Amino acid sequence: MASGLPQTTVAETLAQRIVALRPGALPDATILKCEDLLIDVVGLCVTARDEDYVVSAINGCDDDGVCTAIGHRRTLTAGEAAFVNGTAAHGEDFDDTFEGGPVHAGAVIVPAVLAACERHNPDGRMALMGVAVGTEVLCRLSLVVPKAVHTAGFHPTAIFGAMGAAAGVSAALGLDAVQIVDALGIAGSMASGIIEYLAEGAWTKRLHAGWAAQSGLRAALLAREGFIGPRTVFEGAHGLFNGFARTTEGDYEALTGDFGLRWVIDALAFKLYPCGTMAQPYIDCARRMAARGARPEDVVEIVCEVAEGTVHRLWEPLADKQRPPNGYSAKFAVPYLLATGFVHGGVGLGAFTEGAIRDQRVLDLASKVKFVIDPENPYPDNYTGHISATMRDGSVIEERQPYLRGGAQEPLRRQDVVDKFVLNVEYGGWTKQQSVAALKLIAGLFYERIDLSALRG
Description:
Blueprint: H1 10-19, H2 28-47, H3 52-59, E1 64-68, E2 75-76, H4 78-91, H5 106-120, H6 124-141, H7 148-151, H8 156-172, H9 177-188, H10 204-224, H11 240-245, H12 253-256, H13 280-291, E3 299-306, H14 311-314, H15 318-322, H16 327-330, H17 334-344, H18 360-366, E4 369-373, E5 385-391, E6 396-401, H19 414-427, H20 432-444
Parallel strand pairs: 3-4
Antiparallel strand pairs: 1-2, 3-5, 5-6
Helix pairs in contact: 1-9, 2-4, 2-5, 2-19, 3-4, 4-5, 4-10, 5-6, 5-8, 5-10, 6-8, 8-9, 8-10, 9-10, 13-17, 17-18
């Protein structure tokens, strides 16, 4: 041991917690959440399967293999399948959210674990353990230094996703504690993802989940074969948090303290709209305001109270958020999203076409939307919305949404998740027969030998 380094590192403590878990011992609520994640991710992969960015992603893969790219006939290597499925699942920004992070876990962990198990260990029980462990690690990592990674210019899902995928795949493949430490250490050098996509709505955020899934998978396979990674990957002077959060000081107990005893993923939120999570309560407010009879043309100004930590991604530059340059930029533009919800009664997958983002009624209303920072806003522990509209007759209408619907305070039921799946795969071009077959496969996937062939084509 080098001088000055801890005798037991954060990664070693975490690895011991992981290997102490036993298949079949997961709480019912955690199993339910993992099943919901599987349903949601598969549906999202099909939703996006013919989108241009997914076509580019799969065409950019060099090698065929035995693993399933969901919604495609072509089969790929494990790493490439994890990459394509992760990119597709996150691509429409309709995937789950951990409110404390914020991070998107399912689009990283489910593709990584499915690919690893399909290729190396087709045991459904181990896949379930891998999804639970990987998702839990990813979410807990986002609590160590909340908001700091985003503030530094990185995408937390990308950074923590590689680590979560490494942990999840390690658990699914039955790696020992030393190998898990190595996998985490290796993944630390693979973690990446800048948020410069915000400048012009480039596609790179979409691949962050896929890249993290592929990286974590690769790290676990290297560790299984004896490749050594740094023990101090988290807290080290040149470790993950100093590199991406600009500090080595953090609440590491949030990661390891009660790991395996309390499952934070039980509170994962599923989105109701395919866009940035923090925008969703504002859409709810706008829909209710319109339902009260307010007309867009009678609005003089709408002021939103917002969290300071969301401004640089969802509110600035304000002119671009009021009139986004393309459909992908529109997913992270609250004025546009709020106006769409107000004018059309909701925000669906069709709200991001070239025609939709040029809807003059929406743009006229979006131009009237402004923001002020609320220093008491509880983000990221809770996502709220508050809008105040001044009307032409001088009256003021207010609406508040105190929490994220679909999250811990108003969770979706299993049928809600299934209904979302059915609509998503229909959007992606699957027939009712394909949808029914996929749901049947998903229902038994964590309890039988893994066979994903029904998810191809």
